[in-house]
Specification:
By secondary structure, the chain is an all-alpha fold. It has 2 domains: 87 residues, Hypothetical Protein Yqey, Chain: A, domain1 (Orthogonal Bundle), CATH 1.10.1510.10; 51 residues, Arc Repressor Mutant, subunit A (Orthogonal Bundle), CATH 1.10.10. Helix 5 packs across helix 6.
């Protein structure tokens, strides 16, 4: 089942339950999917990898907004953002723990023979491809930096 179909089903459930938070989050995801589809110029759906990137971007935007609101002491605005991020995360693949990311990064470092921060780009490129959709870039970057420094 495609992501758009899943989103539509979840929207129907949210409408029936009168869950405005979920509905708002799902509508924004649907809008972003449709926008990405029109930008690509194709009548068919966008690829699964692109859908995952789009969902990760939506989650990151909400978490960043929530962090800004908390900095400014506006918990009343931060809570809905975090709630929406949690709703969108349900459609993402299971995220790897930091330990699992470290294990994969260790394998990549061993394969490439990377030993210094000068090799970070090479390791990051491989790690990002291998962990696409299962870990965010910030976590990957942190782990790679700790291994190479």
């Amino acid at each position: 089942m495609s992501l758009q179909t899943e989103i539509m089903k979840a929207m129907k459930v949210a409408m029936k339950e009168k869950d405005t938070q979920a509905l708002e989050a799902l509508r924004s995801v649907k809008s972003a999917l449709l926008l990405a589809q029109t930008e690509s110029g194709s009548k068919t759906e966008i690829s699964e990898a692109d859908e995952i990137k789009l969902l990760q971007k939506q989650v990151k935007q909400r978490k960043d907004s929530a962090a800004l609101y908390k900095e400014q002491g506006r918990d009343d605005l931060a809570e809905p953002e975090l709630a929406q991020a949690k709703i969108i995360e349900q459609f993402l693949p299971q995220q790897l723990s930091k330990e699992e990311v470290e294990k994969i990064v260790n394998e990549i470092v061993a394969e490439t023979g990377a030993s210094s921060m000068g090799d970070m780009g090479k390791v990051m490129g491989l790690a990002s491809k291998k962990l696409a959709g299962r870990a965010d870039g910030k976590t990957i970057s942190t782990v790679v930096k700790s291994k190479l420094s």
